[in-house]
TrEMBL record:
This is Sialidase family protein. The keyword Flavoprotein does not apply. The lineage of its organism: Bacteria, Pseudomonadati, Bacteroidota, Cytophagia, Cytophagales. Keywords: Glycosidase, Hydrolase, Signal. InterPro entries: Sialidase_sf (IPR036278).
Length: 414
């Protein structure tokens, strides 16, 4: 910015102080970190917001959905899209006072370039603590109007249904979720039976096709991950053996049928309860990458494994954390088959969001700190989305007794 010679030193100093005081709310606040510039973007979410989800459509348009709390106990599901590095005015999808809102089981939004959108949230189905349904809504006009809510599962039991992943697929959407219909033992509401993994295809008229059981016994409350390859959808999740081994498994939709569950890698993590730390998967054509957290043998690690053949086989995993990970991973794949993976790490008594590039041959670059955060549940699961050569981040900042969503981006090189 050019200043006229007539401006006094006092005025210039006042101007500089003004800029410094406003830097926290400026839409493009640059932070240089490990030779990488992290640029903050003013978030469209208000105070008391959380559970963000980022999504990039096939044309690279980035969307964010989130939940905002209302003083009278209501919740509002909103979304915004990124236009020239600024978020658009938030649009409301739905509001309600009977939702199941959980730090780890966040709503999602999936979008096709033609404006066809689908969103999901969790709505209570009964008085029990663990009685709630996956609830879907569709929009045919880029979010201006939404369909009536409906559920993809047909069991009508007052049990847990959640941890959803949704993908656009031709003229449908594909959805997969954890399904607790078998946990309802003797009329109770809870964890008496086994959590299962199920999936279905969603039509534009809200009808559901080919609801299928993918795995009868899985970990109760870890996120699912899904991606679309040339063959069809692929789902990754934390499995659960009779011996309480909770490693990552994969199922694939090939030639119109689901494959049998198969372990991505045998960590051998035996744990009596759910670690609330699910895997992520990303793909290009038939190249796959799966990232996950494990604490087998009491050694917390974040790992990634690559597959050249649609998930039929995997390379040996590569450890990518810096020694003290908390997990909560996210993953995107770049055009050259390399990936960017994010996770939470404890560093100098602080919790930070980190990201690292890993090549398909296992070579990895130095990790980059994105931001400080909290290890508490309220901080949720940091999100990533890729558009062209920009990697976007969203996370929940814990500020006293409240939360607010922050967003930023990083320019990356291929």
């Amino acid at each position: 910015m050019k200043l006229k010679n007539s401006i006094t030193h006092f005025t210039l100093l006042t101007f500089v102080i003004f800029l410094l005081n406003c830097s926290c709310s400026a839409p493009n606040n640059e932070i240089k970190n490990n030779e990488s510039i992290i640029v903050s973007i003013e978030s469209p979410a208000k105070v008391h917001s959380g559970e963000p989800h980022l999504y990039s459509d096939q044309e690279g348009m980035v969307y964010m959905s989130w939940i905002e709390g209302h003083p009278e106990g209501w919740h509002i599901l909103k979304f915004s899209k990124l236009v020239k590095e600024q978020w658009s005015s938030p649009q409301e999808i739905i509001s309600g006072n009977n939702w199941f809102v959980n730090w780890a089981d966040y709503p999602t939004l999936s979008v096709k370039p033609n404006g066809h959108m689908i969103a999901h949230l969790l709505v209570k189905s009964g008085p029990g603590t663990f009685a709630y349904d996956v609830t879907l809504l569709q929009s045919q006009d880029s979010g201006k109007s939404w369909s009536s809510p409906f559920t993809p599962h047909t069991d009508k039991t007052e049990t847990e249904h959640g941890f959803v992943s949704i993908l656009p697929i031709k003229d449908q959407f594909f959805a997969t979720w954890l399904d607790g219909r078998n946990t309802n033992v003797k009329g109770g509401h809870g964890h008496g039976g086994e959590m299962s993994l199920r999936a279905a295809f969603i039509n534009q008229d809200n009808s559901v096709e080919n609801e299928a059981l993918l795995d009868l016994r899985v970990c109760d409350c870890c996120q699912t991950g899904a991606t679309l390859t040339e063959h069809g959808p692929v789902v990754v999740y934390r499995d659960r053996s009779e011996e309480e081994i909770r490693d990552i498994s994969i199922v694939r939709y090939v030639n119109g049928n689901w494959t049998e569950p198969k372990s991505v890698y045998a960590d051998g993590w035996k744990i009596s309860g759910c670690p609330v730390n699910g895997p992520k998967v990303a793909s290009i054509e038939n190249k796959l990458a799966v990232a996950w957290f494990s604490a087998a043998n009491s050694k917390p690690t974040v790992k990634i494994a690559f597959s050249p053949d649609n998930g039929e086989t995997f390379s040996d995993p590569v450890r990518i954390d810096d020694g003290h990970p908390l997990g909560r991973v996210d993953l995107v794949m770049l055009r050259d088959g390399s990936v960017m993976i994010s996770w939470l790490e404890t560093e100098n008594d602080e919790t930070v969001i980190k990201v690292r590039k890993v090549n398909s041959d296992g070579n990895k670059e130095a990790s980059i700190k994105i931001a400080n955060t909290s290890s508490s549940r309220a901080s949720g699961f940091p999100q990533m989305a890729l558009s062209d050569n920009h990697l976007y981040f969203a996370w929940t900042n814990v500020e006293g007794d409240s939360t607010v969503i922050r967003t930023s981006y990083q320019a990356i090189k291929y």
